[in-house]
Design goal:
5-stranded antiparallel beta sheet, alpha+beta, binds adenosine monophosphate, 3 domains, 22% strand, Dna Ligase, domain 1, D-amino Acid Aminotransferase, Chain A, domain 1
Length: 359
């Protein structure tokens, strides 16, 4: 696979490399960064999705598909290769395209590691990655029958927190599961595969990193926290009414806030990013390529507990379009993940090392 992609990329016209991605999730920062670096963009989308990117004049070429998984069809792949496209994967790729198929059948270079993107879609593999990297992770319960404290119940796939719930006993588990199914937030199929994790008390801190295969350095691009419906609205309702309404919040992501962390936490964030990169090389050579993000909760002892990893750009990177405090410190110019990606590809072209930054 790697050699096939190396061959494809070696045949590309290096003066006309284009940045391609699906028109959703974090495409705004990806396309904006590409344009700022002087690269053309290719927006793959279903009819209607293109309008947002046209509004901001970010889509130079548009490839329409009936379903996003059609990106794997031969004619779409041919067109992408003819356009000398390098695909930047984001969360929509995980959600709508089978990762095993993407790993094996997508014969278009990706700025990212396909194997790690597949690992990301399995909670068990993610956990193994984080744990073997030497990070603190939440306990996982094998059965709901073992619930002996506050737990977080999640379901398969990247679903933006939809239908997740918190319970503290087996009895409450049955009750809330029933309620979530009734509200249409959890399917009966999902209910058979709950992922039950220890609830970590603390605050969410989601660092975004960029790992350059050219400089072999981990960069901290920014940090965000999320705004989730309905859990973040609950504090606006007085407790007696919450109890009366039997509020059972969900965690559907609506947006993200940019964040700066207390300065003494920064060395820990760098350490976490470096450990993840080190472990990623043991899992699948060449390891992480480009953007990645870790979801952590920082507890009151200022310990970072890592509960999810994304082997690609995350939507929170849209908070730092233009700049973030950490890229402001590190660069002499405005920098953000979308632009950093395009810069890496341009550097790789200049150094004749494009095959090092794609799989
Ligand atoms: P996720 O889809 O896994 O990112 O989870 C959605 C949201 O649930 C996160 O943004 C956190 O606010 C919260 N969360 C997830 N796992 C835990 C956990 N183990 N303990 C506490 N909060 C969690």
């Amino acid at each position: 696979m790697v050699s096939k992609i190396s061959k494809i990329v070696s045949e590309y016209d290096k003066r006309k490399i284009r940045i391609a991605t699906i028109g959703s999730h974090s495409a705004l920062t990806i396309f904006k960064g590409a344009k700022e670096e002087g690269l053309e963009t290719v927006c793959i989308c279903t009819p209607g999705q293109e309008k947002l990117y046209q509004r901001y004049k970010l889509a130079d070429k548009i490839i329409f598909v009936d379903r996003l998984a059609d990106i794997l069809k031969n004619d779409v792949q041919d067109e992408l290769r003819e356009l000398n496209s390098i695909i930047i994967p984001h969360g929509t790729f995980n959600a709508y395209i089978d990762q095993r198929e993407m790993e094996e059948k997508l014969m278009v270079p990706i700025h990212g590691n396909r194997t790690l993107m597949r690992w990301e879609t399995s909670r068990e593999l993610q956990r193994r990655w984080l744990k073997n990297a030497g990070l603190k992770v939440p306990r996982v319960y094998n059965s709901y029958k073992d619930i002996d404290g506050l737990v977080f119940v999640k379901f398969p796939g990247a679903r933006g927190g939809k239908g997740y719930f918190i319970v503290d006993s087996v009895q409450a588990y049955h009750k809330k599961m029933h309620d979530m199914i009734k509200r249409g937030l959890v399917t009966k199929e999902d209910a058979k595969k709950p992922y039950i994790q220890e609830y970590i008390f603390g605050v969410n801190v989601y660092p975004h990193y960029y790992y350059s295969a050219l400089s072999r350095e981990v960069e901290l691009m920014g940090v965000d926290k999320r705004y989730e419906s309905s859990v973040d609205g609950i504090s606006r309702i007085p407790v007696p009414e919450q109890l009366e309404q039997k509020v059972n919040p969900s965690f559907t992501i609506v947006g993200n806030f940019p964040m700066t962390v207390r300065e003494s936490l920064l060395p820990d964030l760098y350490d976490l990013g470096e450990k993840i990169v080190r472990e990623s090389k043991r899992i699948a050579e060449p390891g992480v390529l480009g953007a990645f993000c870790v979801e952590t909760i920082v507890n009151e002892n200022l310990e970072l507990v890592a509960f999810e990893i994304s082997a690609r750009i995350v939507a929170g990177c849209n908070t730092e379009m233009g700049s973030s405090p950490y890229t402001y410190l590190a660069y002499k110019e405005p920098m953000y993940t979308g632009k950093r990606i395009a810069r890496e590809i341009k550097n790789a072209i200049r150094q004749r090392k494009l095959d090092l930054v794609v799989t």
